[in-house]
Amino acid sequence: MLKTFKGGIHPEYNKEYTNRKPVERAKLPSKVIIPMSQHVGAPCEPIVKVGDTVKVGQKIGEAKAPVSAPVHASVSGKVIAIEPRPHPSGALVMSVVIESDGKDEIYEGINPPKPLEELTPDEIKTIIREAGIVGMGGAGFPTQVKLSPPSGKTIDTIIVNGAECEPYLTSDHRLMVEHPEDVVFGLLAIMKATGVKKGYIGIENNKPDAIEAIKKAAKGFEGIEVVELDTKYPQGGEKQLINAITGREVPSGGLPMDVHVIVDNAGTCAAIAKALKTGMPLIERITTVTGTGVNEPKNLLIRIGTPFNEIIEQCGGFKGEVGKVIMGGPMMGLAQGLLDVPVIKGTSGILVLQKKDVNVEEPSNCIRCAKCVDACPIHLLPTTLAKFAQKGKWIEAEQYHAMDCIECGCCAYVCPAHIPLTQWIRLAKNNIVMSKKK
C-alpha cells in the first residue's frame, strides 16, 4: 500500500506539458538582477560596488546574521547598479545588477573541496553555508541552519522531498531522472553532517521513471530507502511527508526537528552535491516554464537573477491572451504583476495561464458542507478561521491554530461557495504575527 496522509485533494496535475522534456540550459542572460534576500531570515549586505568587475561564483552579498545565506554572481561582468528592485514576492528588495560580458569567467576562488569521506560534519555545513544553499522547493530556509538543530534536539531521520506534488511543476522530476546520483550524494552529505544513519527519499507514484532512477543510484548505500508515495496534494508538505513516511506527527506550532526529522528538497540535495564536488555555489537552478499561456513549455537550467521576460521569450513567448503569470505552481505560487522580476533560488516554476483558464468566481455564503474540513491536511476548521479573520478576531484565530495553516489552498480549492478561505487565513496569520511584534 502506498504511503500517504489524511486529507488533501486530487487536482488536475497538468504535468504532461513538461514531464518528458529533458532539462535545457537557458541562454546566458544579458544582465542579472540578484536580490540580497532570496531566503528566510536577514537579507545580505552587498560587498561589491557599482563599477566593480565580478566573475561567476564570486560572493557579492555577505550574510552576517545567523539565519541568512550569502549570494553570488551568476555571470561575469560589470556591476551597473545596487538599488531596490522589484522582487517576485511583490516587494522592492536591495539588488545587485550585473551586466554580463558574455565571457562567463569563473571566479578564481572556486575550487573543489576535499572528498566527502575526508570532510568533517562542521566542514560540510560550512561549505553549504558559504555556497548560499537554501531550500529549493520554494520556502528558501537556509540549509546550514536546518542542519544545525539547537542543543537538546536530536535528529535520527533525514527525508528528501521528491514528491513535487504541485500541479504543472516538473523541475524536481527531471532532476531525479537526469541526475539521480546528485540527489543521493546530497543526502549522504546531509547524513554525514548530522550524524544520522537513516535517510528516506519520498517520491509520488506518478513519477515511475524518477523512482527507478533514484533506486538505481541509491543501490548499495546503507541506510537509504526510496519510498513510493500516493499521488495526492500536498504530499510534499513537510508535515504530511513526515507523517506518510514515518508515522510521526509534528505537534501544533512545532517543527520537523521536534519529531527528530530534517526534510530537504531534492533540488537542495543536488545543489549540495555540486558545491561539494566542484566548489561552485548556488548560481543556477532548474525551473519549469509551463502552462497554457506559453508557446513552448520547457524545463530550463537558469542563472539566478535572469528576468522572467527573458525566460518566457526563450520558451516562444506568450500564447493567446495571458490571464496570469505565477512564480511556482497554481496552488501555492505567487502571482506576478511585473515581468522584469528575477529568477531567485526558490523559483521552481514560472506558470503562464491564459485568461480563459483563470476562473475567479464570486463568493457566496458558506453552505456548511465541511468539504474544507475533510480536505485540510492539518485538520483545521478553515471556515471558522475565515470568519474570525473577517471579523478581525485575531486572538480567537490563534486559539484555533491559524498559525499551523500551511497555506496549501486545499480548502479554497474544494469550496463550492468559492470563499477565498486560504486568503482569509493568511490575513489572520499576518495580523497575529504583527500583533506579537508590537
Automatic annotation (TrEMBL):
GO CC list: plasma membrane
Name listed for the protein in its UniProt record: Ion-translocating oxidoreductase complex subunit C
Keyword presence, Translocase: yes
Main location: membrane
Cellular localization per UniProt: Cell membrane
GO molecular function: 4 iron, 4 sulfur cluster binding; electron transfer activity; metal ion binding
EC number(s) on file: 7.-.-.-
Organism in which the protein naturally occurs: Thermovenabulum gondwanense
